[in-house]
């Protein structure tokens, strides 16, 4: 049974169960979606892949986890999130298990693409929770749900020690140990969470777009504001996804640490970028999403700017032909980890702030608008890993990874500030207030 929800609605009686199970499902799905950040290292060794080839494994998973977010969000508004969440959980279990059987680069690419469908659960959960929670609690609810991004750290924690402990072993039904055991475990967990969702979540779901035509649901996408929000989300989420997949290799290659250590260090970036999302939602509810976005972009600009600078020194050539090396500069491992941690904190706040805008400005089209924003943000995560690999090859500097992020932040920050300046200084006082206080629809 579906309940059509009016644009302005109260928090439903079963909202807590929806938030709990959607958050658990999303956390697991995110772990599956980005598992190649860790699995890619042993896969690269086993299949003798180049860095560019490896980057496309994560990129294709991110691509398929992004390209369906718009239709998934619309479908959630029309038929409810319960059915879609359960179906996606069960379907993703199939390619996840098959990853354990892959023996060639092409097979891994194909299965990574199929497994990547898990990422589309984000727009499903966003629209689903927006339908169940009233406006006064949406920012916090969406922040809690979005904290499921922390799933990206699950493989970073359990992967390396489990891979090392089970390498070379064979278990029941011919299941092999090492990196191949991880996707099997995930496949089993996906089925278990699917069954629990079926049992726990209220059967009478909410679907605010049940009787609304598709053309009407897509109408808000004509607004430039929606596309601006999408660019913000590329910056705070697309870059987050890309770095989550890329950092383990970055640590191994540039700081000569083990895969286990690299996974743990990457988790210090993933945790704040995920767990601070509820706080970012609360801050957006209390002080306004625009203020949070200003702080987010400012912090990201400084942190990524410092990380962009490669190790080096200044060489002075004297008239007598001698040379002097001055101002030696090096980003040590602790300083690097601290800067990446700060970058993750800013992303955590920013992800919540971007999605706080959507139910405020488009309360009866959260599925379509949230789906588009999520889709384009995820596509940023598809584009960036290969961009990291190719800019490193072209420039010779591993830190070019952060130069790509710096440029992206600078463009987003400039567009946001230009929009705010134009509205607050050239428009009417009433419109100036509306940039801070969401338009009432």
UniProtKB/TrEMBL annotation:
GO biological process terms, semicolon-separated: nitrate assimilation
Keywords for this protein: Membrane, Nitrate assimilation, Transmembrane, Transmembrane helix
Gene3D superfamilies named in the record: MFS general substrate transporter like domains (1.20.1250.20)
SUPFAM superfamilies: MFS general substrate transporter
Record's signal peptide: none
Transmembrane segments: 18-41, 53-72, 84-102, 108-128, 140-159, 179-201, 226-247, 259-280, 292-311, 331-354, 366-388, 400-421
Domain of life, source organism: Bacteria
Principal location listed in the UniProt entry: membrane
Cellular component annotations (GO), alphabetically ordered: plasma membrane
Major facilitator superfamily (MFS) profile domain sequence ranges: 17-428
InterPro entries listed in its UniProt record: MFS, MFS_dom, MFS_trans_sf, NO3_transporter
Protein name from the UniProt record: Transporter, major facilitator family protein
Protein source organism: Corynebacterium matruchotii ATCC 14266
């Amino acid at each position: 049974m579906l309940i059509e929800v009016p644009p302005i609605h109260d928090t439903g009686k079963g909202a807590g169960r929806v938030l709990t199970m959607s958050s658990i499902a999303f956390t697991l799905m995110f772990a599956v979606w980005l598992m190649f950040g860790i699995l890619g290292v042993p896969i690269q060794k086993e299949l003798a892949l180049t860095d560019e080839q490896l980057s496309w494994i994560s990129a294709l998973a991110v691509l398929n986890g992004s390209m369906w977010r718009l239709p998934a969000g619309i479908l959630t508004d029309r038929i409810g999130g319960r059915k879609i969440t359960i179906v996606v959980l069960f379907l993703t279990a199939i390619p996840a298990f098959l990853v354990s059987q892959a023996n060639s680069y092409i097979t891994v690419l194909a299965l990574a693409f199929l497994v990547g469908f898990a990422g589309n659960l984000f727009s499903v959960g966003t629209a689903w929770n927006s339908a169940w929670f009233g406006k006064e609690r949406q920012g916090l609810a969406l922040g809690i749900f979005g904290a499921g991004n922390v799933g990206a750290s699950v493989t970073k924690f359990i992967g390396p020690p489990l891979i090392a402990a089970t390498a070379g072993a064979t278990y029941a039904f011919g299941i092999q140990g090492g990196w191949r055991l991880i996707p099997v475990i995930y496949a089993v967990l996906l089925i278990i969470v699917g069954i629990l969702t079926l049992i726990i979540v209220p059967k009478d779901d909410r679907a605010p777009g049940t009787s609304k035509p598709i053309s009407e649901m897509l109408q808000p996408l004509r607004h430039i504001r929606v596309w601006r929000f999408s660019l913000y989300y590329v910056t705070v989420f697309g870059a987050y996804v890309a770095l989550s997949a890329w950092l383990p290799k970055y640590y191994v290659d540039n700081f000569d640490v083990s895969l286990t250590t690299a996974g743990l260090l990457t988790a210090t970036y993933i945790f704040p970028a995920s767990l601070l999302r509820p706080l970012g939602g609360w801050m957006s509810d209390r002080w306004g999403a625009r203020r949070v976005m200003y702080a987010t972009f400012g912090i990201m600009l400084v942190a990524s700017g410092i990380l962009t600078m490669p190790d080096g020194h200044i060489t002075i050539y004297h008239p007598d032909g001698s040379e002097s090396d001055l101002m030696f500069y090096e980003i040590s491992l602790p300083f690097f980890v601290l800067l990446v941690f700060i970058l993750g904190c800013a992303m955590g706040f920013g992800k919540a702030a971007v999605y706080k805008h959507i139910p405020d400005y488009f309360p009866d089209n959260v599925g379509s608008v949230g789906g588009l924003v999520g889709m384009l943000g995820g596509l940023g995560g598809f584009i960036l890993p290969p961009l990291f690999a190719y800019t490193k090859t072209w420039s010779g500097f591993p830190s070019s990874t952060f130069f790509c992020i710096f440029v992206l932040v600078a463009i987003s920050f400039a567009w946001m500030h230009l929009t705010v300046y134009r509205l607050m200084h050239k428009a009417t006082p009433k419109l100036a207030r509306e940039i801070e206080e969401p338009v009432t629809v």
